[in-house]
Design a protein that fits this description.
three-stranded antiparallel β-sheet, 13% strand, Rossmann fold, 15 helices, single chain, 394 residues, alpha/beta
């Protein structure tokens, strides 16, 4: 024991007491910080900063419309390198960033990619990200190129992260003008069925009062807890872990690296979901018939199907479903049967995209992003123009 200035021996502070004191001090400090951050409303989620950094193309629709549906907020502008910015946000190494020119992308008053002042259009195109194509400049969109090829106005109603329910309501609310004659629905085999199922559940929840039909941005509640922020930092998956690697496969040349995703199932694997999707197709078809509109379905293949003529090896650390040997499913045949039964024109653009890829893989972005390149969009637009022209001749 140590002695005090008066000569008395002081009690020795044990290691246990030191640990207890340090722990209590830390808890007090954390408690003060927790109270302070919550009192000032500090948002650890940094929603505003994160949203501004996220290209509009990769954002979910957040503004409610109709009885239970969502669209993008209108009059938005975003400038930068679309794919590169998203890859930076996720945390990929710069060596994978594409050679990309910065773009200024503008969205109209209703949240779609159309020129200002578009009042009348002959063709309306609905679909998800493969219709929106927010990675491409305005003049390279399928809708823009189709309009030039046919010398008509085409309205783009594509929105990422949507399925057929939302898309049908976009057509009903924003897609029919006095001059409209044609509707093109782009069905992406990669995730459109999944998105449709999610929309059915969400709409049902809203209509039964389980969920509120509210603006998802304006009602955002700040994450003000320091403890929760630290926990999420340590234990939650990072964005990179969620999205996976920038590339996960190599061509048989042993050099070309690219990313594949999605494995469209066969009809037997998802027959119940396909029955529900067929009801959605019927709803869209009826809307078109009620308004005297000709409906065309464009079957958009995933990257794996478009690249299927090129042997490649999947990385050993890729998800198990990607490492399994994949053969093109019969989903296109199912869609063809449904469209034929309902009298819907069908255009499967797998063939033209595979032809584009005969010498080089040009149809889709290779690294990270799964969407069409400018070349791929041009091929789709040309195939559509040829189909619509031939129908006029017939």
């Amino acid at each position: 024991m140590k002695e005090s200035s008066t000569g008395k021996r002081l009690p020795r502070i044990t290691l246990t007491r030191k640990v207890v004191f340090a722990t209590m001090s830390l808890m007090l400090f954390v408690g003060v910080c927790e109270f302070s951050f919550q009192a000032i409303g500090f948002d650890f989620s940094k929603l505003g900063q994160d949203l501004n950094a996220t290209p509009i193309f990769y954002r979910i629709p957040t503004e409610p419309f109709g009885s239970a549906y969502y669209k993008r907020p209108g009059k938005q502008t975003w400038a930068g390198k679309v794919v590169t910015s998203q890859m930076q946000r996720i945390g990929y190494e710069s060596k994978w960033f594409p050679e990309e020119e910065p773009l200024t992308l503008e969205y109209d008053a209703n949240g779609f990619r159309n020129p200002e002042g578009l009042k009348s259009w002959k063709i309306a195109m609905i679909g998800d990200s493969f219709t929106e194509l927010g990675n491409l400049p305005p003049d390279q969109l399928v809708t823009s190129q189709l309009g030039k090829l046919l010398d008509v106005s085409v309205k783009n109603l594509g929105v990422s992260h949507t399925g057929l329910l939302n898309q049908t309501e976009y057509l009903r609310e924003f897609g029919i003008s006095a001059a409209t004659e044609e509707v093109i629905w782009v069905f992406f085999e990669g995730n459109d069925i999944q998105d449709y199922m999610m929309e059915i559940d969400r709409v049902s929840a809203i209509q039964t009062g389980i969920s509120e039909h509210i603006d998802l941005l304006k009602t955002h509640k700040p994450q003000t807890s320091l403890v929760k922020a630290v926990y999420q930092r340590i234990f939650a998956k990072s964005r990179k872990e969620i999205y996976g690697p920038a590339v996960n496969a190599t061509l048989s040349d042993g050099i070309t690296r690219f990313k594949i995703d999605y494995a469209p199932p066969s009809r037997d694997q998802i027959f119940l979901q396909l029955q529900r999707l067929q009801a959605g197709i019927e709803k869209l078809h009826n809307l078109c018939k009620e308004n005297g509109l000709k409906l065309t379905c464009v079957y958009m293949p995933c990257k794996r199907r478009a690249f299927s003529d090129h042997p490649y090896t999947v990385d050993t650390n890729a998800p198990a479903y990607l490492q399994l040997q994949w053969a093109p499913s019969d989903l296109p045949e199912w869609m063809q049967e449904v469209c034929k039964e309902k009298g819907i024109r069908l255009l499967d653009v797998t063939g033209p995209l595979k032809q584009l890829n005969q010498t080089e893989l040009l149809s889709h972005n290779l690294v990270f992003d799964t969407h069409l390149t400018a070349d791929g969009a041009e091929v789709v637009a040309q195939a559509l123009a040829d189909t619509l022209r031939s129908d006029e001749v017939d």
